[in-house]
Amino acid sequence: MISLKINGIQIEVEEGTSILKAAEKVNVKIPTLCYNPDLPPWASCGLCIVRTAGPGSPRMARACTTPAEDNMDVITHDAEIIATRRTVVELILSNHPNDCLQCPRNGNCELQNLAADFGIRESPYRKVLNGLPVDDSNPSIILNPEKCIRCGRCVKVCQEVQNVWALEFLGRGIKGRVASAADVPLGESPCIKCGQCAAHCPVGAIYERDDTMRVWNALQDPEKHSVVQIAPAVRVALAEEFGFAPGTIFTKKIYAALRRLGFKTVFDTNFSADLTIMEEGTELVHRLTKGGDIPLITSCCPAWVDYMEKYYADMIPNFSTAKSPQQMMGAMIKAYWAGKAGIDPDKVYSVSIMPCTAKKWETKRNDVMKSAGHGYDVDISITTRELSRMIKQAGIEIMKLPDEEADSPLGPYTGAGTIFGVTGGVMEAAVRSAFFLVTKKELGNVNFTPVRGLEGVKEAEVDFQNGTKIRIAVAHQMGNIAAVLDKIREARDSGRETPYHFVEVMACRGGCIGGGGQPYGCTDEIRSQRTSGLYQDDEKSALRCSHQNPFIQQVYKEFLGEPTSHKAHELLHTTYVPRELYLK
User: pTM for this structure?
Assistant: First the structure.
């Protein structure tokens, strides 16, 4: 520990703590734009300057990258520092469009907030814009380089956190800009559509493609029967958009709000998460007992699917052929439920509410996503942020709505289905049902804690108590997966036994709860709160294992036959192909 003063207040902090973090200990917020707790600091914006040798000292430092030192005397705010920070904001604004009212981040923009904090009403500098065009070539993400403030967050998260390298800096000085790698359109770059760039951008330079008007048009079309599904992670994040704490669960009010918006039928993706476990768990057991490529690698995350097809195509034989819960639900709505409800499936308009921007791309990923035979199984996917805008546009006071239930039979779910939204959740849900599929006995304690938490890679062994032991790995945040896959490759290429039998991968930190379409401002603290909400939903569920869901049993009895049956393969499974990093 070291001792220092911040604005005259004596404090102790751990050696190596930055001045920025030390200031938080005395409840002082130093303004930043380039800093984000998910990313390594790199002092790009210059807003966090402080004095490091007491009042009146000429010694300035950038608080985000300068470590606190023993006996240091730090001044975070004085007239000169405030004037300097104000000048920095004014200079950024001189190179930034003044179209806040048309910006997707209006009202939730870090630059806008700083301009308000500093009381900036006019700029002393000439406006200089570069006239850069909007790049809308990507099916999930829009890049507007004219709004870029060159903070570098998107580049750092894409390169250093996700290890995708789809974004980079081009040019220098006032002509400097962020662009897709090799300056090709973003839709032709290595981008995996995870949306972490958009989630970390402080302004409106990168954002999700807004499909809300397409949904509004469908809701108002008397010829369409609009059906909606809501993903596990949405229910523990949407409340943040209405001023409530992260992790607040109000699932039944979301059902009610969706009906108020005009959806005729409301289902829950947690149900199809249960369905996914039945298919994927059975696939694992078949590979272990009857032969097949091991390890089996999960396929629920479309950004991970895109990454695998581009960077690890040699692993395609290891990939589970099971579709994601979103796509399984889409197929079941049009192939099973529509007939059961007496509705023409060609008139069904299927909408999904997802925490993920890559889900927009997944709906059209290949022709297998038309397995029900009535157009694409999921017609459109919108994010948590888009749903919140729709609810606000409709004037719905969501927290005042009465609780409502999802529709049957594709609505009721088990606790296993709800934890799909968090890293380790798919693995834990799979273990609960795989144990039953192998032993024909129920697992005594269904809480499989070794796969929980925010550690980048988690490893464990599951003992099925019949001589069968399964080695598993869980990885989240794309930058962590290479270590796991390289370990598998090395064993395979050298002829050694695989280090794992089952591997779960999620592209975003924390899993879907930290998805690229979730409310802005996500940190590890918020991820933990959202995670806690999902585990609470699991623990209060009467049934906590997917195979126990009576509606899952009904679907197999009435329609699918059994897991991995011919009909199940037609509707619930997919294929993969190697993809080029750059489209030609």
Answer: 0.94
